[in-house]
Amino acid sequence: QEPLVESGGGLVQAGGSLRLSCAASGRTFGTYTMGWFRQAPGKEREFVAAIGEGGGKTEYGDSMKGRFTISRDNAKNTVYLQVTNLKPEDTAVYYCAATALNYLWDYAGGYDYWGQGTQVTVSS
User: Fold this and answer.
1) Per-residue pLDDT tens digits for 76-110
2) Which residues pair with 69 in a beta bridge?
3) Half-sphere exposure of 99 (CA within 13 A, CB side)
4) Of the candidates 87, 92, 113, 89, which has an alpha carbon nearest to the alpha carbon of residue 35?
5) How far from the centroid of its chain's Cα atoms is residue 35's Cα?
6) Residue 114 C-beta-side C-alpha neighbours within 13 Å
């Protein structure tokens, strides 16, 4: 099992930037595909981005391309999500997720482990 702990959320003004982090425990982090999802109140969980075990492959949700960047540092057991030019509609709880399968799933059911989420609130 790969316990995941997100951090880096908060209240930001529109146009600002954030870098979310997700720290994993265990010695097998480098073998997991990692993903980021978000969920706004009253909405379904939405795919943001995924990154392969080595970091060379990434995938983004259609509406996420351009402002979101996923990366990972396997030496630190951490995956990141950089978000720029934040908009009020980016307000959501952001979750990281992990799967042992070597595939960049874009739906929540493809992931086995989840963090508790970090709140991002963007004010206009």
Assistant:
1) 999 999 999 999 999 999 999 999 988 889 999 99
2) 82
3) 18
4) 113
5) 5
6) 14
